[in-house]
Amino acid sequence: NAGVTQTPKFQVLKTGQSMTLQCAQDMNHEYMSWYRQDPGMGLRLIHYSVGAGITDQGEVPNGYNVSRSTTEDFPLRLLSAAPSQTSVYFCASSYSVRGYIHEQYFGPGTRLTVT
Amino acid sequence: AQKVTQAQTEISVVEKEDVTLDCVYETRDTTYYLFWYKQPPSGELVFLIRRNSFDEQNEISGRYSWNFQKSTSSFNFTITASQVVDSAVYFCALSEGSNTGNQFYFGTGTSLTVIP
Question: Is the CB of B50 less than 8 angstroms away from the CB of A103?
Fold first, then answer.
């Protein structure tokens, strides 16, 4: 299993550009999430999904869109990049068994710089 | 309000010392899950442990141990005989389960430096 994969690993954007961060998992996990990590602020939830076709907003959703057309893929779209979106982005997946929550598996991260 | 508080921003210890990382959580749910993750300088997030609200047994894994106390809403992590390889940022996290879409709430992390 590849686990959770993210592409690209690094990206530089100009203000106003749009792009999509890719995330895929091959573990058939129902839950997927996107976080951003900024110095001193831990991991903050951007959007999450409880299954294909179902997404919801997390703590910091503004400026980002997601979709989940398949169980495997959960892309994050930046609509019009701003310098405040310079961050490291992590995708994660997890699962539950009879309501028992298991840990999140994280991708390697995408380091995004917006100039 | 913060659901997970890690009050220690940075800790430095000398190799072989013991160190405890504090984690205080807040939830009204009776069923919840607590986690610790390690983020070494290479940047990946490594899962360390999961604890359920209905299991207050402490756990030991090698040099690592975890003390879960519902009475004080704390889930502290102790490293015994610290080593340089333990230098990392450690995150505590809370999940209130599938009713909330399995959202994880992370603390702001504690940066541990082990000095040789």
Answer: yes
